[in-house]
Give the backbone structure.
Amino acid sequence: MDIKSLEDRFEAKIAAGESIEPKDWMPEKYRKTHIRQISQHAHSEIVGMLPEGNWITRAPSLRRKVALLAKVQDEAGHGLYLYSAAETLGISRDEMTEQLLSGKAKYSSIFNYPTLTWADIGAIGWLVDGAAIINQVMLTRTSYGPYARAMVRICKEESFHQRQGYEIMLTLCNGTPEQKALAQDALNRWWWPSLMMFGPRDAESPHTEQSMKWKIKRKTNDELRQQFIDITKPQADILGITIPDPDLKWNEERGHYDFGDIDWDEFWQVVNGNGQCNKDRIAAKQKAWDEGAWVRDAAVAHAEKKEQKKQKLSA
Ligand code: BYC
């Protein structure tokens, strides 16, 4: 089949809402966009374990420790499903890791902020997982089959994570004045970075237009950001704490909250490697990669030995 017919068949499938599967023909740009997005998403899950892992040994009770351990372990699982989904597009896990460690591949800006107090674990679950769910529910209908299917399970787990965080915030807000102040301080520090997770404004997003056409994205960055704000403001009211934005006001005409300006300079500084924790995060991943080399070597040697044995038996 010539390239034009292949392209037409691909576009017809997208238009009909059918999913694209690994063995289907796809334009090179579609394949590359997915490798970029899925691998960056996987890296975010794995790097996202670091700020939360910081509090496992200091969780205030056994119940909190068990829940946090389970959550961090879930993030590792999410990373694994996503790396596997990306591998179906012809990139290896080693290549993806190299791209993360060299800075070629990005991971979410949000994980370059430090977790200073226990309340940050509450704020991350509530806001960061809350934002992740809004973005990822959309991705359960993304056009690439393996990515969409991975997102179904991930969303179920993220939902538990969001409730775990909100419950920590609720407990702190119903506690002593000092505990409530910790919750307010965490909201103050995590609010704006959470809004940045959705990416640049649509007008400044180089990938959105094509990704919407190919149904990789079903909603734009700005649409999802607005959805998050509209859902989260009433949740802050229940907690009795204040979102740090004096311009946050209900707009009857639009049927949405208006909100203040995001500091896009800060966003690009963080994305380009100059956030508070970028260097520490990559150093931690580099150390884990180096120290895990013997495990990877042993696993490969074991698999090779098993294969040799199989061949010997069948000879
Ligand atoms: N941080 O044209 P755009 C989680 C980059 S949740 C860093 O809008 P696109 C978790 C973007 O990559 C977080 N970089 O791009 C939660 C692009 O650069 P490149 C992970 C960002 O792809 C709790 C450039 O800016 N979720 O894992 O159409 C606990 C222009 O952007 C960010 C996902 O990854 C950012 N915030 O849209 C543990 C969801 N925003 O690649 C873990 C899947 C933008 O050209 N990803 N950039 O060098 C997506 O939905 C989309 O990729 C985005 C960006 C909405 C993030």
Remarks:
- Residues 28 and 121 are 40 Å apart (CA to CA).
